[in-house]
What we know:
Helix content is 66%, strand content 7%. The protein is built from 8 helices and 2 strands. It has helices at residues 3-10, 14-22, 41-49, 55-78, 83-105, 107-120, 125-138, 156-169; strands at 26-31, 34-39. Strand 1 and strand 2 form a beta hairpin. Helix 1 (3-10) packs antiparallel against helix 4, helix 5 (83-105) packs antiparallel against helix 6 (107-120) and helix 7 runs parallel beside helix 8. The N and C termini lie far apart (38 Å).
Amino acid sequence: xxxxxxxxxxxxxxxxxxxxxxxxxxxxxxxxxxxxxxxxxxxxxxxxxxxxxxxxxxxxxxxxxxxxxxxxxxxxxxxxxxxxxxxxxxxxxxxxxxxxxxxxxxxxxxxxxxxxxxxxxxxxxxxxxxxxxxxxxxxxxxxxxxxxxxxxxxxxxxxxxxxxxxxxxxxxxx
Length: 174
């Protein structure tokens, strides 16, 4: 994760992040001018078990990555520099985790993530997420607000799959 994610999920307590890095509980990877942080899995699990409200950081994480994905999709559609590709690649595991948590607790946010990733060209939408969305629809989730936009040129297959998924999820949507 990056500093923006730490602020969004951790409530802006960057001094705590610094102390965790100093104690090697969080690893800081520096590449060029960017710093990415990694929380060791055992510490993540321990911390999660001791939260008063475990849903709060999960929700904050998901909402942060909805904003990240939507901003990346906008950059991709505008054909801006390749920064969005680097960010999308670096944040891929976090985006997948946000989609997974959204499918469990906030399907509309998960669908916003999926749509944004699809527009930005993230691979895997056709095979993985379409099946998950169908399962959510079969489980009775209200996904009637799903709206799939158009794709950049060259991604027509993804657009066809998206239209088929939309039809199966929201047969009355236009």
